[in-house]
Design a protein that fits this description.
By secondary structure, this protein is an alpha/beta fold. It has 8 helices and 7 strands; from the N terminus they run ββαβαβαβααβαβαα. The protein has one domain: 3-Layer(aba) Sandwich (Rossmann fold), CATH 3.40.50.1820. A 7-stranded mixed beta sheet has the order 1-3-2-4-5-6-7, with helices on both faces. α1 packs parallel to α8. About 45% of the residues are buried.
Amino acid sequence: MTSHSSPIVPAALDIDDRGQGASIVFTHGFTDHLGSWAAMIDDLSADHRCLSWSMRGHGASEVTPPGTYTREHALADMRTVTDRAEAPYVLVGHSLGGYLSLAHTLRYPDEVRALVLVGAGPGFSKPEAMEQWNAMVDRSAAKNPLAEGVEVISKHFDSWVIDNLATITAPTLVIVGEGDKQFMASASLFAKRLNVLNSVVVPDAGHSVHRQQPAAVVAAMRPFLAGL
């Protein structure tokens, strides 16, 4: 926890829950919403139960007051979603959603069957790197019509996740767009510290690889899921 913490205020979350079979929980990135997974879920829900959700302050989920967008609030919301899933479940996360999926796995390792990290990173170990990232988040927030305080959900104030990556044993699939240079470095770090079974670089895609090339992401996921 950080100085940005406050008592957890529940939020009304927009959750899409469809399909039958083993559960997959999809978590989107900063400034996005559950609809980012629609094309993938249209395919995967044919033989999996797919739960996607919008973070508080995103999509159709509730906008809560400033001070209620900490990592702890986001993880509490994610817990609300995973409580609806049948454990063990697979966590699929893009960008911030991938970071939260890693954090959730640190909290509930016995519940996570596997991880699919899409254009995701583990945070930062150096304070100066955190400051640079947080400044970038502020610039991004200034360009988007976000509720007051929402940007904190994407900021980093400690190195908890990156420092504990090696304790995560869940089988992991890493997917990154070939143009996503910033998160290509994260993919290399994951290969060293996580139980990565496969890393896939998707051509003709950038950071939002799951939106730009959903069929390619599904094609990478299907053999991974079948092998669990």
